[in-house]
Specification:
It holds the Pfam family APH. With about 290 residues, this protein is α+β, with helices and mostly antiparallel strands. It folds into two domains: about 90 residues, Phosphorylase Kinase, domain 1 (2-Layer Sandwich); about 180 residues, Aminoglycoside phosphotransferase (APH), C-terminal lobe (Aminoglycoside 3'-phosphotransferase, Chain: A, domain 2, Alpha-Beta Complex). It has a five-stranded antiparallel sheet with strand order 1-2-3-5-4, sandwiched between helices.
Length: about 290
């Protein structure tokens, strides 16, 4: 049944399907598909209601996006239920960071700028700015998940919260440009002179500085330079980034996606010292 669906989506005979592991945090099924002519493609199949919704959104965006940052769309098969299949070019041969070099970091920043110049695909909505800036409000209402991470003391949080809450309210989140909104090493690669972004289900319309701000902690956590050594980010946006991870990293594991909370904690370990420096807060140990 799977082989038949893949053949229908691709339009060419399928001879072998190999599970692909190593990237991605959702329970979607990922595969390398070998075709009769010896070529290969990449396929992703949803397995749950959320992943089916995300995959349909991703397909809609791939159909409309144009640019060197977009992997080639090969095919699509929608069962109308929980297991639609998206087929893209096989990028397993590409260079997936880390390691991070100055040249690779600049290519990512340039690609973010290129994406911001694209027409907005139908169906892509403005960023929910009120929700995104609400991280520190969530921590203030229930600090225990954040404090359980052991990154600061209750006394430090009590002193810092007024400054953090004020800073995020002034953060320039809104804008009129297209964002990918999930730029991390597992969602981008380098293939020759192309810098490609994958997993387009979170695309939105906002200020592209939001994209740069959220990219920098994961890059630094993987051995790249500190965020403030790469570019200047509005202090309020630094507060938004830190607040997002502070309000999520200490929560229970996401069902079917056990790797999400650990990667959020890893990014918080960068974002929290970053916001301390950006806002001139007391050191975390005090």
């Amino acid at each position: 049944m799977l082989t038949e669906r893949l053949t229908r989506a691709i339009g060419r005979p399928v001879v072998r399907v190999t599970p692909f592991t190593g990237r991605g945090y959702t329970p979607a099924r990922r595969m390398i598909v070998e075709l009769a002519d010896g070529s290969t493609v990449f396929a992703k199949q949803a397995t749950t209601k959320p992943t089916a919704k995300w995959l349909r959104t991703e397909f809609s965006n791939y159909r409309q996006l144009r640019g060197s940052f977009r992997p080639e769309l090969i095919g699509w098969d929608d069962d109308g239920g929980l297991e639609p299949i998206l087929v893209l070019e096989d990028l397993s041969h590409a260079l997936w960071p880390p390691p991070w070099t100055a040249e690779r970091i600049q290519r990512v920043l340039d690609t973010i700028a290129e994406i911001g110049r694209q027409p907005i695909p139908d169906g892509v909505e403005p960023l929910d700015a009120d929700w995104l800036r609400g991280g520190w409000r969530t921590v203030a209402e229930d600090p225990e998940p954040f404090l359980s991470l052991g990154m600061c003391t209750p006394a430090w949080l009590d002193r810092a919260l007024p400054t953090l809450l004020a800073a995020v309210e002034s953060a320039p989140l809104k804008g009129d440009q297209l964002l990918h909104l999930d730029v991390r090493s597992d969602n981008l690669c380098f293939d020759g002179d192309r810098t490609l972004f994958v997993d387009w289900n979170h695309a939105c319309v906002a200020n592209p500085e939001v994209e740069r701000a959220f990219f920098l902690p994961s890059m630094h956590a993987e051995g790249g330079p500190a965020p403030d050594e790469v570019t200047t980010i509005d202090p309020g946006l630094v507060g938004v980034v830190a607040g997002y991870f502070a309000s999520h990293a200490g929560l229970p594991p996401v069902p079917g996606a056990p790797g999400v909370r650990p990667i959020q904690r890893t990014q918080l370990e960068v974002a929290l010292p970053w916001v301390v420096k950006a806002l001139g807060l007391a050191p975390l140990g005090e």
